[in-house]
Write a structure and sequence with these properties.
It is globular and about 40 Å long. With 126 residues, it is mainly β. The protein contains no helices and eleven strands.
Length: 126
């Protein structure tokens, strides 16, 4: 089994920055890709960013490109999400997730992920 624990959320003003962390433990060798998803009140869970160790690439949702990055220091037992220029519409619970395989659009769907953290709240005030 794999356990994922997110941290780093909080309250920040618009234009500010936060760095989220996701600590993975257990059978992390089974994880080939890890992603970040978010869910705002009253909205569905949506894809934010993904890091594939197996294929060595990162991919971001259009609405975070140029603002959010997964730093190169991320390793299989630790995933980060650097969020800059935050907007009120970024307010959501952010989840870390892991999947044992897949590529391309498969990685954009939360239902395909095998492991999930409990989430960390990010609130951006205007």
């Amino acid at each position: 089994q794999v356990q994922l624990v997110e941290s780093g959320g909080g309250l920040v003003q618009a234009g500010g920055s936060l760095t989220l962390s996701c600590a993975a433990s257990g059978r992390t060798e089974s994880i080939y890709t890890m992603g970040w998803f978010r869910q705002a009140p009253g909205k569905e869970l949506e894809f934010v960013a993904v890091l594939s160790w197996s294929d060595d690439y990162t991919y971001y949702a259009d609405f975070v490109k140029g603002r959010f990055t997964i730093p190169g220091v991320s390793a299989k037992n630790m995933l980060y999400l650097q969020m800059n220029n935050l907007k009120p519409e970024d307010t959501a619970v952010y989840y870390c997730a892991g999947v044992r395989g897949g590529s391309g659009s498969y990685l954009l769907r939360p239902s395909n992920y095998d492991y999930w953290g409990k989430g960390t709240q990010v609130t951006v005030s205007s």
